[in-house]
Design goal:
heterodimer, A: 5-stranded antiparallel sheet, 3-stranded antiparallel sheet, B: Immunoglobulin-like, 4 domains, 8-stranded antiparallel sheet, about 25% helix, elongated
Chain lengths: ~300, ~500
């Protein structure tokens, strides 16, 4: 496994976020958020901790950091560049205004069936607290999604990298599902296989993993074993499929040039591929560098 | 048990949900028009199944479903994002969308109630079959109090009972609102002259209460009690001990997944038997529901059996993924046979149907197929009997008699170890009562026994169970077959019938 940071194949990206009465630029660069309009963000954070008012940018940075190992980011975020997610800052504003106590967000929502016995005051209080927490969390996630695709995949990479560095068996189901959901779409392009026929297991140990194609017809299965790092180093960097090769690892990270390991077909040994990144096509939905297109 | 496999299964189902064409049709269970069998519904069903077998904790399941919910609503084309109206008003945005909230399922961590310590050395519980009716009549009410069984347990002494009310001057709502409206008129005196009040409170509905407690708590060795009510002569209730046959206990080896599937199958069969096909399509309570102070609400019509059975294939796959159901288990095949026999389609079970169904299942399925929709209800009546069953899977049952009212037969029981915090599991299974219970009557017919209601009575729970089909009054004895995962119990009990005059 290379020692370079997982994001070495990613260019910086930036977007505008509401802050105060205007819009400020926020940039992702080398794995960190940079608040360009706030020269002394650290000091602002200290002031905010002492009860001072938080700016929109500062709140966003805090939200980002709260979720850098949140597996829900993988569950909710994009599965690929074609997986469009539409959240605007107006949506975030409405969500924040609606919760956590009352407002239109509550209307029409299914209420829980009460417990079989009568709920005590403590239980009701706890239930209310749980609801408030859930709504705050949801507003958090909406604001992160509102940053756009470039930030969404970078945050997903950050989350995957956090769990790859600190393996925890409790995270295995979420990581397995996260890789499956993304690899299934890649495999459909790669082999024309039904995404539902892709089975992923989490690879642990040395090496990049395995690929295997078995069965025929409905029983056909593409079985792939990949490490959690794949999500960060390969998928989040826009590298999963290049020149008909499924990229399984990054041998030498870099932007815009890198060397990756790709397999031509299931069961084949990976071969090194020198790849070069091209910015998103004009008119594409991503900002420059947000959804890079890699070529051999 | 493979908890990782269970969680992974649900998360992969979520991935399919988000990826697949169903994404645009996703409706979560709180949407009013959830199509049965939609993927969103299947996720909930699978989650309920995994929670029921304790392969997945509630919080994790809720988090996964909350994530799927949010993932769906932030993607264009989701039906919750309604199109703009002709006036160009903005369509609902994620900030206004419904979201998953914690405790949606509300299935609490499993754990039975803590049994109370017996009151003192030498004290023993006492259960006596009674089978006595106490008539009463005044300006307000005329009827009978039917005493099925006397039970003296750690939390007090009570009668399992039921009412027949022929005349009521008070509206039913009044009866419901005032727990003592019926019981205050009775005076109870023991063989030592001590007087007691009857207390049916705590049940929410005194008219359908199944236990009436004696206040204060009587001594453990009273020989009789005399009931007096206005307008009638006193009625003496002898409390002589009655020896019952010892239950037979045999070993069982069911996995948690098999147990759940068996409970689902029994529920399906009971619904089919209780509601003929033409009645199942209605969303109203079935014909057995007769409003009135002396009747109990009948099982609500479940709608089509297809809706109840939707997702069975997913449940089976989830249980296998969780390692609580062997791929070699016969139970999925049994369930397939049940569905085929009841003409249920769309269940998704891939296991081939099997012919080696348990005898009670075959008997009830035969009843379902023979039954004519216009079959009349069995006559009202009550039967005194008691039976204490050995503990099964942490749950101890004491049977306290049964009665039939409005075509519905109910078995009264006291339960200890009930997981009262559990909620309904998949397909409407009541997970608080994780036993399979059947009754074979003296005529050879099997009756499924399903939980219908409970209320707490100290460390015990007063439980009512439905018998499907109802028990005929011609039955002179019943054999109770109760099965848990590790053991099953057979107990033969003699019935002493009483009738409303």
């Amino acid at each position: 496994m290379p020692n370079d940071p997982w994001y070495s194949c990613l260019a910086s990206c930036q977007t505008m976020v509401p802050c105060g009465q205007g819009m400020h630029t926020v940039r992702w660069e080398a794995g960190a958020l940079v608040l360009l309009a706030h020269a002394d963000a650290e000091a602002e954070l200290v002031l905010a901790a002492l009860g001072g008012e938080k700016s929109g940018c500062i709140e966003l940075a805090e939200t980002w950091h709260r979720h850098t190992d949140d597996l829900s980011v993988l569950a909710i975020g994009p599965r690929g560049a074609a997986d469009e997610i539409n959240v605007s800052w107006d949506d975030v504003k409405q969500a924040a205004a609606a919760g956590p106590r009352g407002g239109p967000a509550r209307r029409g929502r299914m209420r829980l069936a009460g417990p079989p016995g009568s709920a005590g005051a403590a239980a009701r209080q706890q239930a209310q607290q749980d609801m408030d927490d859930a709504e705050r969390r949801r507003t958090d996630l909406l604001s992160l999604l509102a940053l756009g695709y470039g930030f969404q995949v970078r945050l997903a990479g950050q989350v995957a990298a956090a769990h790859a560095v600190r393996p925890d068996e409790r995270a295995r189901p979420a990581l397995t599902a996260a890789i499956t959901g993304r690899l299934a779409l890649v495999a459909e392009q790669w082999l024309g296989i039904d995404p539902g026929q892709v089975e992923v297991s989490l690879h642990a140990g040395p090496g990049w993993g395995t690929t295997e194609l078995t069965g025929r017809g409905e029983a056909r299965r593409l079985r792939v074993s990949l490490p959690a790092w794949w999500l960060a180093r390969v998928w989040a960097c826009g590298l999963p499929l290049i020149g008909g090769h499924l990229v399984v690892a990054v041998e030498r990270a870099g932007w815009p040039d890198a060397r990756v390991l790709g397999v031509r077909g299931p069961g084949a040994e990976p071969v090194p591929l020198d790849v070069h990144a091209r910015e998103a096509a004009p008119g594409g939905r991503a900002d420059a560098g947000d959804a890079p297109h890699w070529e051999m | 048990m493979n908890r990782e496999g269970a969680e992974t299964f649900l998360r992969l189902l979520a991935e399919a949900e988000i990826r697949g064409p169903m994404t645009s049709a996703l409706r979560m269970p709180w949407s009013a028009d959830v199509p049965a069998g939609s993927t969103g519904n299947l996720m909930v069903t699978a989650a309920e199944a995994l929670i029921a077998v304790q392969a997945l904790d509630r919080e994790t399941a809720e988090q996964i479903l909350a994530d799927v919910d949010l993932a769906a609503v932030v993607r264009p084309g989701h039906p919750q994002q309604a199109p703009a109206d002709p006036a160009g008003a903005p369509r609902p945005r994620p900030g206004q969308l419904r979201v998953t909230i914690p405790n949606r399922y509300g299935i609490a961590p499993v754990g039975g109630t803590t049994p109370a310590a017996p009151p003192g050395p030498g004290w023993a519980e006492r259960f006596v079959p009674v089978g006595v009716s106490v008539p009463f009549g005044d300006d307000e009410f005329t009827g009978e109090l039917h005493l099925l069984c006397y039970a003296h347990v750690a939390s007090g002494a009570a009668f399992a009972m039921t009412w027949s009310i022929r005349h009521s001057a008070a509206p039913y709502a009044t009866v419901r609102a005032h727990p003592r409206v019926l019981t205050w008129r009775f005076t109870v005196t023991d063989d030592r002259g001590q007087r007691y009040d009857l207390d049916a409170s705590g049940t929410g509905d005194p008219a359908s209460a199944d236990l009436a407690w004696l206040r204060p708590d009587p001594p453990p060795d009273i020989g009789w009690l005399e009931f007096s009510a206005p307008g009638t002569s006193p009625v003496r209730v002898e409390l002589a001990a009655a020896a019952g046959a010892e239950p037979e206990v045999s070993e069982a080896r069911l996995s948690a997944g098999e147990q759940l599937l068996i409970m689902i199958a029994e529920r399906l069969m009971a619904l089919a038997a209780n509601f003929p096909r033409d009645q199942r399509t209605r969303s109203r309570p079935g014909p057995a529901s007769r409003p009135g102070p002396a009747s109990r609400p009948a099982l609500a019509s479940p709608g089509t059996l297809e809706a109840t059975a939707a997702g069975l294939g997913t449940i089976i796959a989830a249980l296998e993924a969780a390692g609580v159901l062997s791929p070699l288990s016969p139970v999925p095949g049994w369930l397939a046979t049940v569905c085929a026999s009841l003409n249920i389609s769309g269940h998704g079970i891939t296991a081939p149907a099997r012919c080696d169904l348990p005898e009670p299942w075959l008997n009830l399925l035969a009843f379902c197929q023979r039954r004519k929709p216009d079959t009349g209800p069995v006559h009202d009546g009550f039967a005194a009997m008691t039976g204490t069953l050995p503990e099964l899977d942490g749950l101890r049952l004491v049977l306290l008699g049964l009665h039939t009212n409005g075509g519905v037969s109910s078995l009264h029981a006291l339960a200890r170890g009930l997981n009262a915090d559990a909620r309904a599991g998949p397909c409407g299974v009541e997970t608080y009562f994780p036993l399979s219970v059947w009754i074979r009557d003296s005529g050879g017919r099997w009756h499924a026994v399903l939980p219908s209601s409970w209320h707490q009575a100290g460390p015990e729970y007063a439980l009512q169970l439905w018998l499907v089909p109802p028990l005929p009054r011609s039955a002179t004895w019943i054999e109770v077959l109760a099965a848990g995962r590790s053991a099953q119990v057979r107990a033969r009990l003699t019935l002493r019938w009483g009738y409303s005059s």
